[in-house]
Amino acid sequence: MVLSLFSLAIVYAVANSFINYENVILKFEELGYPPYLIFVLGTAQLLGLSVLILNKTAWIREWAYTVFCIIALDVTYVQNKILTRKVTYLQKKYKLNLR
């Protein structure tokens, strides 16, 4: 059940990246990543998903889960960095002291 939901989420994310390619390119450039990384991440996610579904070797499955966790941690780091930058900008603009 959990793997099914995870699979649907990954397939939806990859499909969304290719359907809304122009918007995703703008977001990647805003975050400072090159646009070709969209294809690399999409391919890696689909390969990792196929490993999880088709392969029964525990060692390879652990590495697939590890890669998904690394990607999630990277996304969390970048989002935090962007949010911090926006808050700092708003503090300077409106002369706020939120600390």
TrEMBL record:
Its main location: membrane. The keyword Nucleotide-binding does not apply. Coiled coil: none annotated. Keywords: Membrane, Transmembrane, Transmembrane helix. The chain crosses the membrane at residues 33-54. One of its GO terms (cellular component) is membrane. It holds the Pfam family DoxX_2. It is found in: Membrane. It is a multi-pass membrane protein. It comes from the Bacteria. This is DoxX-like protein.
